[in-house]
Design goal:
The structure is a single chain. It is built from 4 helices and 3 strands; from the N terminus they run αβαββαα. It is an alpha+beta fold and 139 residues long.
């Protein structure tokens, strides 16, 4: 379901909260949204053979100096619940700041990496080196 940006963030917050309770997965994908190219291609046909490795002849060529700002399509999926929003290129930085704040608040179930004690490992190496040097010395 395509919603506005604030509706997407609130819906994503609900999905993340539910996934924290029942340990389910939320998948968020981002891709460039280019409706003009999709309209030019027409409906997608099923392919029977694997696609060729050569570039397609109907693909739009990249022209230097002709950079356009394309909107982004962001999707979130949890089970059968689907959310999506279209973010304009000009609004992406503000959206990303709100999105990252939301992720920091909701991703509390992640475990922190265990810190290794450097002193203990350095001490163990020095003991091992002393034992090796003691074995080599008496000849």
């Amino acid at each position: 379901m395509l919603v506005d940006n604030s509706g997407f963030l609130s819906g994503l917050e609900r999905l993340l909260r539910k996934s924290n309770k029942d340990s389910s997965t939320v998948t968020v994908t981002t891709k460039r949204f280019d409706s003009e190219v999709r309209r030019q291609r027409g409906p997608v046909e099923k392919r029977t053979a694997p696609p060729s490795l050569q570039p397609r002849s109907d693909a739009p060529a990249a022209v230097p100096g002709n950079e356009q700002s394309h909107p982004l399509l962001i999707r979130a999926v949890r089970g059968d619940k689907k959310l999506s929003t279209r973010v304009a290129a000009a609004d992406y930085e503000a959206f990303q700041a709100k999105y990252l704040y939301l992720l920091r608040q909701q991703l509390t179930g992640l475990q922190q990496a265990k810190k290794r004690k450097i002193e203990a490992s350095t001490h163990a190496k020095s003991v091992a080196n002393k034992k090796l040097s003691a074995r080599k010395a008496p000849k």
